[in-house]
Batch of 2 targets.
Target 1
Amino acid sequence: MIPREILKKIRQIELRTTRLVSETMGGQYHSVFKGQGMNFEEVREYQPGDEVRSIDWNVTARMNHPFVKKFVEERELTLMLVVDLSGSGLFGSRDQSKRELAAELGSVLAFSAIRNNDKVGLILFTEEVEKYIPPKKGRRHVLRVIREILCFQPAQRGTNFGKALDALNRLARRHAIAVIISDFLFERRPAAEGDGQRAGGYLLSPTLGPRTLPALRQANRRHDVIAIHVVDRFELALPALGRLVFTDAETGEMIEINTHDARKRRAFADRREKHQAELMRVLRSANIDAIEVRTGEPYAAALGQFFETREKRRRRG
């Protein structure tokens, strides 16, 4: 039995996102993401303006006047949502956590997909692949996808992109639109002797470090991989609120910081800026488009700009 408050939240997400899909996103999705070919539909009489190369000469010879072949786009695609459920996704400094925003973004994309008769699948991951929902069509299926992103209780709290990408390549056998939704925060691996930046016996390293880059490139060769980076304002710059105790949602480590200290706030912002730059560098090197969205802020403009950029690139290509 699903709790009433969860059902209410899912319904609110559905109402907000279906309106956005109807007004703008559905059409943009259709124009940007194309099928993999053209299917023959019928033969009809030639009309002025038809492409001469489409004339069916066999039918034309039999009927003694020109006929053309009509083709339609092979429209059906698969949208795979690859969603990070690590512990850091539960954070949100406003009325919305990063995980709630991930569910809303997944809803917009999923409803856009089924509106265009595409299938939607879901991979939820932490340090392991926690759940896989095979691609299907239909509103009820999309509502299940939203519910799982919102409510699934993962067994682990950390992050391992390599396993998620391996699962994507193994489970999605045909070309798919693969959207990774994550905060792309730091993952931790055991530190060896002589390693530099240590914290409680662990080495801090970007989630998309050198080990992950080959898997990203392989995934993007097989699929159209897109990264949606979900962030919170307090993860970019600390507020000046005095002494605060922070708990790492993925490791349970605790640290006390005097946020009135301008040097500490500056150092925090500098580290985050370097992390952002490294993340963008890795994604660019894998030829993956990235979208940044923030909790508690409208995301339609960021998605719209992404679709517009993709459409311009498609026309040039």
Target 2
Amino acid sequence: MSEEDSFREAMSDVEPLQRKPRVTGPSGPSEATPAQLERREAALGNREAADPIDLTLGEVPQLAPRELVEWKKDGVQRGVFARLKAGAYPLQGSLDLHRKSVKEARLAVFEFFRLALGQQWRTVIIAHGRGEQSATPARIKSYVMAWLGQMPEVIAYCSARNHHGGSGAVYVMLKKAPAAKQDNREEYGSR
């Protein structure tokens, strides 16, 4: 008996599955939500006015509520990053994002960094919370990490020390302003 014959014999009592009719709601497919329509328009390039805030509202990698985060650009010295992680730099500004929606947080982060750059702040803290009780845990935290990665002014960030909020907050180090760089060159000389 060939393989094909044995296969046919084994499958002789098999019946095809019956297709069941598709069930839809009373009005057919559901209508797109305003957010879905907005994303669709943005993807098609049909937006009339460009959004001045260049921070994503799209999908971002999801973090765990108690996950510790850290990142630094190439060129940031290990000692500088270690001091940031130890909370040894004075915090020149703070932003609290508790109880904010993603859109509200996005605007607040954008305006906070505009202020920080104008004030030439170097080290700030953002309290994003852990979001453990939220329907989507750590949602704001996940977006904040994505936004920090999109900002060229940010040179390093890490989870805060426990007394500053631990995994629910992040220390952020910003680039030195050109004037501050020049002051350093004058004080310590070019090396």
